[in-house]
Amino acid sequence: MVICGDDGLARRLAVELDAVCGETVTVVLPSSRNEHGGEIDTLHRDPRSPVELLIAARPDEQALRAAGVERAAALALTYGDDQTNMMAALLARSLNPSVRLVIRMYNRERGRHLEQLLDRAVLARRRGGATSAPDARPLDMSTTVLSDADTAVPELVAAAALGPGHSLQVAGKVFRGVVRPAGAPPHASDLATLAVFSGADRDDPCSEDSAETPGEDGTQLLPDTVTSYHSQFTHGRLMLEEVTHDHVPEAAADSRTVGGWLRDRFAHLPWKVFVSREVMSVFGVLAAVVTLLSLATYYTDDGIPLWKAVYLPLLDIFTMGDPATGESRARKILQLIAGFTGLAILPLVVAATINATGAFRTASVSHPPTDNLSDHIVLVGLGKVGTRVLIRLRSTQHRIVAVERNPHARGVAVARELGVPLILEDATDPRALGLARIRQSASLLVLTRDDSANLDIVMAARETNPGVRAVMRLYDDDFAATVSLTLRASYPDALTRSRSVSALAAPAFAAAMMGRHVLGVMPVERGVLLFTAVDVAGHPALEGLSVHQAFAQNEWRVLAVGAAGSGTVPVSSSDTLGGLRLASRPGFDWRPSHGRVLRAGDRVVLATTRQGLDILTRGRIAPSGPRPTP
Q1: Which end of the chain has the smaller Cβ count within 10 Å, N or C?
Q2: Residue 209: which of 15, 494, 5 has the closest Cα?
């Protein structure tokens, strides 16, 4: 595996491929003197680590050849510049047409075009006979374009909605590994047993720290039913739990009726800003002046009607009346007083009106929650990541309150469309968290771009609600680990998780480098589970067997069955919400009958060990003999 990058993602990806997946890694760095370069250099100097290091200013042909791209199975390009990644990808494809390319791209549309271009080049080369073979298997190298935001969303959602447990996204759904205590009754959301533990009891054996602090021996991956429930395994079972369901977010408003349309458009508007203290004070002064001038006019001009005594001062104040040249001296004096008063008061009236109108426009975007809302998730930050998290949280049917200080943020319109309560305030202001009912909330998810602000918000929320489950996005990986440990020590009874985007994105990049069929990676103690999508056709260990018979103890387990081609969603089948694409749900059955026979036209999602994946990939038949009960 070759990694070309210059930031925290390259370092995390090297650790993921080396320590978790057991791959041989070469990292190409612009310099070993910066922060992340020095950390990768430390990995290179570790005698226990096979990570190789190559210093090159840019990923040109000479650097790629020196890194061994011509012999590599996969190449990851994680530079922060899209153009650099694109040029390196095109060059690498020419040097090694069969290399798997995993490219980090910020421009999603450009990334989609690049992915199609590079894959078509490989297919054209194969059709031309350069690498053709009668028994050639479908391409699994291809090109995968990933975005930090998209890959980080599933774990952020699972951490905020459900708490601890390693999460992953498979075929449009979000799952997590959760440990059930021995003897605990099954949960309706549990899909399969992934592992059993007979060593030291741990709260989260599949957490991000497990590879560094493994428990005692005794973990069995993908056990059969007898082993799963045997009395010697007293420390719990690792279950695969479904987090999201086939629920498409819908707008809360019913605009099919006139009453519903009017209620949705006008009921939540903050009309009270027009009767604020400032506005009422200015107009109160104006009313008092008009009253005094009206009384003076009425008593100094005999026989004038009362309505005219009010009408004339108003004309004078707004300079709309005629000069009182032919009127009495008292009338002339009062007109001058009214004119000067108007010059002093009218600017105040205009300013108060403009301020109230601006406040109305700003506050009308907000849609605060009801007073009886509780056990909800407070989401702070509706930028690129926050918007995707908002949509994903809605798919889990959790109640959400969003907080965003920028009325023009991309997620504000999406929140309004989904009917999510929205607070348009700066979350560092305690008033904003109060409006979001943080005291009654179950979780807080902070996703702004400011590390310091994120920490301030979490600490303020902890003071108000010490037991709230807090998840914050931090850019610096080491800072995230330090903050998490400190907050856990300060609030031992509350869950606090702080993760960097690079740490969240690394597993998805690692899975893509291992082949398009690898959908996710879950570390479990000293081992690792891989989640793969495989076409049944051509696999003797799967084709023609039932789900029950296709189980191989400690090697693989069938999790879901669908039609061949499932797991990838065409662009044309996406729904659009707030300018973002929502992938349609692939047609997988995640609770297949054990008696269902796997046919050549089926595609299955498997949980496998590294050994099991090697058997399937190389086309070897699983050992014969009686199969354990799955």
Answers
A1: C
A2: 15
Instruction: Find residue 186's DSSP bridge partners.
Output: none
Q: Are 143 and 90 in contact (CB under 8 A)?
A: no
Question: What gap in Å lies between CA 170 and CA 167, rounded to an integer?
Answer: 10
CB 140 within 8 A of CB 97: no
Mean pLDDT in order along the chain per 10 residues (630 residues): 86 78 83 69 71 88 93 91 91 89 85 81 62 42 74 73 66 75 78 77 42 49 78 71 58 48 52 64 81 84 81 76 72 77 76 69 67 90 88 81 89 86 88 91 90 88 87 75 74 68 76 72 74 85 91 91 60 34 57 91 88 71 46
Q: Which two three-digit tokens encode residue 332? A: 């002339």
Q: pTM to 2 decimals? A: 0.59
- What is the β-pairing status of strands 190-196 and 237-242? antiparallel
CA-to-CA distance for 612 and 630, rounded, in angstroms? 15
Place of tokens 């798997």: 100
Q: Tell me the three-class secondary structure of 506-523, residue by residue.
A: HHHHHHHHCCCCEEEEEE
- Rounded to whole angstroms, how far apart are CA atoms 196 and 228? 6
Q: Show Cβ contacts of residue 355 under 8 Å, excluding neighbours closer than 6 positions.
A: 278, 279
Looking at residue 514, its amino acid is M
556-563 and 496-500 strand pairing = unpaired
393, containing H or E segment: helix 384-395
pLDDT in tens, 238-269: 888 887 554 444 444 444 455 554 555 555 55
Please identify which residue in the block is written with the tokens 């031309």.
Answer: 128
> What's the gap between Cα 8 and its chain centre?
18
DSSP 86-122: HHHHHHHHHH-TT-EEEEE-S-HHHHHHHHHHHHHHH
Starting from the edge strand earliest in sequence, which strands make up the sheet with 52-55, in order? 52-55, 26-29, 2-4, 74-77, 100-104, 143-146
In angstroms, the CA 379 to CA 373 distance is: 15
Apex 34 CA angle, 76 and 475, nearest 5? 70
Spatial distance between the Cα atoms of 423 and 366, rounded to a whole number of angstroms: 5
Number of other residues whose CB lies within 10 A of the CB of residue 305: 10
Sheet holding 422-423, edge to edge: 422-423, 400-403, 377-380, 443-446, 469-474, 496-500
């291809």: which residue's tokens?
142
Residue 558's DSSP bridge partners are 606
The length of the chain is 630
Using DSSP, state whether 627 is helix, strand or coil.
Answer: coil
- Contact present, 589 and 562 (Cβ < 8 Å): yes
Q: CB count, 10 Å around CB of 314?
A: 16
How far is the C-alpha of 379 from the C-alpha of 548, rounded, in Å?
A: 42
Assess contact for 101 and 118: CB atoms under 8 A: yes
The token pair at 457 is 């918000």
Query: Which phi-psi region, left, alpha or beta, contains residue 181 (left: φ > 0; alpha: ψ -120 to 50)?
Result: beta
- Whether 59 and 4 have beta carbons less than 8 Å apart is answered as yes
| Helices within 450-554 (DSSP H only) | 451-464, 477-490, 501-513
Tokens representing 261?
């349309």
Q: Using the 8-state DSSP alphabet, how is residue 222 labeled?
A: S
Per the CB < 8 A criterion, the answer to whether 379 and 386 are in contact is yes
